[in-house]
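Subject: for your reference before the review

Hello V.,

The reviewers asked for a structural picture of the protein, and I figured it would be easier to keep everything in one thread rather than splitting it across files. Below is the amino acid sequence we used in the manuscript, unchanged from the supplementary table.
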Amino acid sequence: MKRVFFPHFLVWVALLAAAFPALVASGQSEKLRVAISSISTSQVNVWVPLDTGFFKKQGLDVELVYISGAPVGAAALMSGEVAISQGGVTGSITSNLKGSGTYIILGGADRFPYQLVAQPGIKQISELKGKRFAVSRIGSADHTATMFVLPKLGIQPDKEINIVQVGSVPARFAALVNGSVQAALLIPPETVKARELGYRILSNFADIEIHYQQNGVYTTRAFINKRSDILRRFAVAYSEGNHYIHTNSEGAQKIMRKYLHGDEKAIREAYTEVVLKATPKIPYPSRPGIQTLIDLLVKNAPEMATSKPDDFIDTRFVKELEERGFYARLYQQ
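And here is what came back from the structure prediction:
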């Protein structure tokens, strides 16, 4: 894809050189495999810096590897198959608890992006009892949202619905359409397609006021200690991508259309209702959002009762950028 250049490109090279002299490399890119846990709007934060060339500008030759479900992504991280994972952070937290040494270094969406979509004949949430409900995988971000939010809506998911592991958002939508499940959590553009086909939106989780670390970027303690230079560069490119999302609506939506294959209406809704609202300008992991996860996970892992959000995060890279004025300069442009 053709690289997009901005008028202030040379200014940014100078600013980054001043802030991080080591970032101005000799021109040789370093290969970096990054796992993504879904093909959905939650991955826009890595698609944008990849397609705009922000990763390349930092000397990183990033290869995205699709691994469905955050728990599997965490396993790939521990095996060394990938160096970084982007997706639901539940897998990082639970594997960390087991001694894996994974830490969340960048925070993504701090809210639930899902809409609860059901077959046309289901008119209210109580009618989901006894029905088949699609999730990506047990322990994935959408499964966690299911287990956390449905009880607040009057459904006990572990007792009153039949949870079926289906896969990605498109796969869950397909399962809904072919009738193999009666409900699922979807996000735009699939929610737009669902409405057009007559499926019912029973609840929009984004309207529920709950702090929740939906996704983020995490890696191992070993990689943090050995290759902090790569992670600094990754944090710069990721942050520039977030800035692009907030300031270049047309460009961001064009990239989304490339990966999500939605029409303009669906992509516009995905951008305005999910991506723009959920993309942090300064990507700190959300301590309140991670505490929500801890409170949920402790039910099945009592040993988490004494855990705190800081046990699972490493904010050094965002903090360094903020202290050096990177974000202040970035959002003045």
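For the response letter, the relevant points are probably these. Residues 1-25 have pLDDT under 50 and may be disordered. Strands lie at 30-36, 60-66, 84-87, 102-107, 115-118, 132-135, 162-165, 183-186, 200-204, 216-220.

Happy to draft the paragraph if you're swamped.

O.
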